[in-house]
Write a structure and sequence with these properties.
Belongs to the class I-like SAM-binding methyltransferase superfamily. RNA M5U methyltransferase family. Keywords: Methyltransferase, S-adenosyl-L-methionine, Transferase. By secondary structure, the chain is of the alpha/beta class. The protein folds into 3 domains: 85 residues, OB fold (Dihydrolipoamide Acetyltransferase, E2P), CATH 2.40.50.140; 190 residues, Vaccinia Virus protein VP39 (Rossmann fold), CATH 3.40.50.150; 117 residues, OB fold (Dihydrolipoamide Acetyltransferase, E2P). Helices cover 22% and strands 29% of the residues. The strands form 4 sheets. The chain has a 7-stranded mixed beta sheet. Strands 18-17-16-19-20-22-21 form a 7-stranded mixed beta sheet, with helices on both faces. Strands 1-5-6-4-3-2 form a 6-stranded mixed beta sheet. Strand 19, helix 9 and strand 20 form a beta-alpha-beta unit. Helix 2 packs parallel to helix 10 and helix 8 packs parallel to helix 9.
Length: 451
Amino acid sequence: MTALELTVRIGAPAHGGHCVARHEGRVIFVRHGIPGELAKIRLTDSGEDARFWRGDVIEVLEADASRRPHFWAAADALKAGAAGKVPVGGAEFGHMDLAKQRELKSLIFTEQLARLGGMDAADAGFTGVRGVPGESDNGLAWRTRVAFAVDGSGRLSMNGFRSNDLIPVTEMPLALDSINALRLWELPLRGISRVEVAAPAAGGELLVLFVEDGTRPGAADKPAAKLPAGVSAAALTQSRGTAADGRGELRRIRGRAWVAEEAAGHTFRVSGEGFWQIHRLAPQVLTDEVMAILDPKPGQVLADLYAGAGLFTAPLAQAVGESGLVHSIEGAPGTSKDARRNLHHFPQAKVTQGRVENALAAQLREHGRKLNGVVLDPPRTGAGKQVVRELAQAGPQRIAYVSCDPASFARDVADLRRNGYALTSVKVLDLYPNTHHMESVGVFERRSTSR
């Protein structure tokens, strides 16, 4: 059955990389359009009982001046649509110039904060999404981490947006040049379900992680042997008895199962299972923001929640000195292990692995010292009500909140405001160019009286 095609006028941007269009009263979330354009779309999700439909632009009848040819053929919706296929996900804003991308992201952030956070972004000094110094003019070659799928024929692939279709790829223009230089699409990948790559932003040894699907024992050994000299390789073996998180057992094949990253004058060891900021400039940019917000002093007690490999903990611990204390809390076991290695020379850094809300409460009971400040860098789902309540009990005067999702940030803004905090400043940085994602850095101050 042929998918239904419609002609619509593209409306306002919406969170998630869409714009809103309407057809006979029906709301349609459309990707790959620009507000104001007249376009032909192909519906990807539709039904008479559905609250809304979804669709992709397949032909532009009246183009916005900001539209440009997509830099990546596999992600070009117009080319994919002409062939009756879906485009690769992950570069959904690549059809417009960076200035327009940031304009749309600014509108989305403002709308989310108003609707979910209950406040005007301008009241917190928001002036629009901004790029970062040192970013390329075209927003390419910034990803230090990339994950690929592998199709049934053993070809390196990526998923289409909201699709189980695997699309073979022979490049990833958002990735660092050193990642594309590996030419992973030439490797024999049968028995592999996923390939993940980590490249240190400052240069150095890359790590390729092969996730085996369990059908061929040792399947990662053959492609690992074909990697260029000086590239490390490891495997995650998925089989019966695999850990509950689905990640399996990590096996080093050659080199080391981690990469060395540099930020704020510190060196961090980040394993194949660990978390690190994706944009090559993000670790330093975000550390500078956090340190300026908290302005840590010797002897203070701070908390780094969702601390990852210790990116913020290390400079905070150095600043508070041995008379101070930094609670560094992370939920993921592998990432927490990285933090322990990275912070072992800071006795004032208390590294804890566990659910943030539980670990924070336990640490505060044990040490009996109120917090002077907190850095909060949760996953895309946000911190949530329980973490916010524990923070309010701890009573820090200032919170530096780093967020990669405007919707969860806005929900947490509402919760923090109900618990006695005011969002006094917010910056939104374009650390994900050519995608709909953005990074917010908010400053929360404890009000003198709270409800």
